[in-house]
Amino acid sequence: MNRTALKNYAPQARRDFIQAMTDRAAFYGITAKKVESMTVKGDVVVIGGREYPKAIADKRTRLEERIQRDGFNQTIDAVAYSWFNRFVALRYMELHGYLEHGYRVLSHPEGKPFAEILEHAEHLDLPTLDKSTVIDLKLAGNKENELYRLLLLAQCNALHASMPFLFEEINDETELLLPEGLLNSDSLIRKLVDGIAEEDWEKVEIIGWLYQYFISEKKDEVIGSVVASEDIPAATQLFTPNWIVRYLVQNTLGRKWLATYPESSIRGQMEFYIEPAEQEPEVQAKLKEITPESLNPEDITFLDPACGSGHILVEAYDLFKAIYQERGYRTKDIPALILQKNLFGFEIDDRAAQLAMFALLMKARADDRRILDSKGQPNIVCFVEGKGLNPADLAIAINQDAGGISSGNVSQFDIGELVELFEHAKTFGSLIQVPPSLGNKLEAIEARLNLVESGDGFAWRSLKHFPALVKQANFLNSKYDVVVANPPYIGNKYLAPVLKAFLKENYFGFEKDLFSAFIIRDISLSKQGGELGFMSPFVWMFISSYEELRQQIINKSCLSTLVQLEYSGFDGATVPICTYTMTNMISSDFKGSFIKLSDFKGSDEQAPKTLEAIQNKKCGWFFEAKPSDFKKIPGSPIAYWFSPRVIENYRLPPLADRFFSDGLTKTGNNSKYLRVWWEIDGRKVHDYELYRACQKGGDFRKYYRKSDWVIKWDQKSRKHYRSDHVARISPEYLWEKCGITWTKISSSFPSFRILEKYDIAETGGPAIFPKNDEDLEVGIGFLNSSVVTYFLNALSPTLNFQTNDMLKLPASFDENLIPKIKPLVSKIVDCLKEADSDLETDK
């Protein structure tokens, strides 16, 4: 697949589709700034002084209402997305021969500049297509665009029966915005056909990549600021590379199957499967308890709780297919079973969910040509919100039948609770937890809905989307055998207030990032003994602010496998990534398998080196470790590569026994209070009551570095640091105390330097201070040693070096060596000071 071509096509396609829809809306008198009034006059409607066929009136009214509800830009964007999805689906289906009539709808097999369907228009038998109109238009000889539009809409309507989620009955506002001139050489359709080679459509994976690139510019627009609810999909959805998806599926679903059937032939199909480590007898006994003696493929449930365009589910489909085949099922029966019984997905974005369902149906269609004729749909829930539903009206509709009020009624209170639960469903998604009291009533509510559906049609229609709320509540209230996700990543400071408040109330301690809350939620969605798989930033493995998440993972489940990618190892991600699998079982002595790819730069190296490690565990970057080892290290970082000998060092006293930190100075306005020192009058720069040297990080330099910065230190400035709600000032007793400073955020490992008397440490250059001044030099020497660099690789591999990271370091100073080390460090500092004095800027 030529991903470069997809990357070049899709962002421009989004702009083209949005512009085309915007122009079409303007044609009907609707712009972002104004909506022209519409008047019906006989067989026509008048908009802005122009006459239009009366048939467009209802569609135009619905478009107005939608824009009033959702806003102009959001409506145009959604309709553009819908037509893009439909064209992509038609293109995939025509190239794979999945259209019943056998003709291409968007292109011609001989490369002619028009669609093959035009040549056979009079022979088509499509719902809503009037043959006499088709013949008249074809005989006219000059109405090809009008004829093609008619055929295209008829084709979309024909697909409604099998794919209603993607091809709604095209008689609504989306039809109104379909552009004219679809046969033109610069049309949306022609650009799609010409922009992507036919061979790139071979695998359904293309759907996901097109989706990611289509929203890429929107993603860039919203990243770095507070993300509105409607922008969460664009900000968070990331198409997972195929090798990582295979690794996740094979080490969760595949692992579950092989645990029961270790001799299964599917092992040979799973190249990213990691053979479990040999466990101690106690762990083996626990594994035996949770491993069933037999498995029925039809009973295994697999959930992706943030499924996006469905890449993970599509890969799971293939493995389920292999499992069914091994158990002797008929090939034609397998696709429907997988869609109906095995695969489940949750999604907040309608358009992504459309593509996920389409991708799964295309996988099934490749194995069963009649699958599109069935009414079975993939079990993908695109969340529906409860906004606008009135519990009192719903109670009347639900509890009513031909004989009036029947027994088994559903209370208005229960209905209201369900409606309220999903008020922000498109923001909270699968993080929503169904209260047990409500979960116990879902079966009765569903039974009552079934009675209404089989009775009064009007009553059923008046329920609107309440049945969808019941369905998604049932799915959220279930537990699954396998849960695999690439959860959304948004840091807490970029969350919309309503989402931030929700996380604080429901996921306290795990609200640092959205992915953290998702991991906790997904563990609760899995059965005891279930398998879980994730791809996420690897910050949770080390950073102190994720310690509670770490503790939850290593204390409440078992890390079975983990692959830590190199910083640039994921093409398209802006954060360092890891991917890992877990078993929902508690055992501190469970030994997991870990692959460390930090020495292999670039995305192209990650998959091959992972395979090499799987095939050769002695490669040097494959490790085995257990939670009980992590717990021996302060903060429990997932330092899986630490040997027992290294871990033993943590029995030593921490550096905090000899050093401390007591706050840093923060100006609250650096442009006002910080200066490079040569900007200051030389007579004032050495007046410590007016200015102080300010250590705020800087380039790599061990032992000593003269700061270029000074901070205002007059009484007025110091008063500001104390009183301003953003600023702060270090305690006065530290103003003339020597310490150790370093650069907080670095592109490499830190270099530790002396913080001299009268110097002030700022947030970019944190500092620690010796409890005994005699320890200063030996502390600097210790921190600059290769041993500390090794330890910091575990405590802070993200290269963000916090004060607590330093104070947790195991440190045992040999009192006999201190007298020898102290003069050596002092001499190094003096030499560096002398070298700095020769700099031109130091004159």
> Which regions contain 5 or more consecutive residues with pLDDT less than 50?
none
Distance between the termini: 61 Å
Shape: globular
- What does the largest sheet look like? 9 strands, mixed
Determine Rg (CA atoms, Å): 32 Å
Mean pLDDT: 89
Helix amount, in percent?
40-55%
- Tell me the structural class: alpha/beta
List keywords for this structure.
843 residues, alpha/beta, nine-stranded mixed beta sheet, 22 strands, globular
Describe this structure in words.
The chain is of the alpha/beta class. It has a nine-stranded mixed β-sheet, with helices on both faces. Strand 1 and strand 2 form a beta hairpin. Helix 14 crosses helix 15 and helix 14 packs parallel to helix 16. The longest helix is centred in the N-terminal third of the chain and has 25 residues. The chain is globular and about 105 Å long. The mean pLDDT is 89.
Give a brief rundown of this model.
The protein is α/β, with parallel strands linked by helices. The chain has 36 helices and 22 strands. The strands form five sheets. It has a nine-stranded mixed beta sheet, sandwiched between helices.
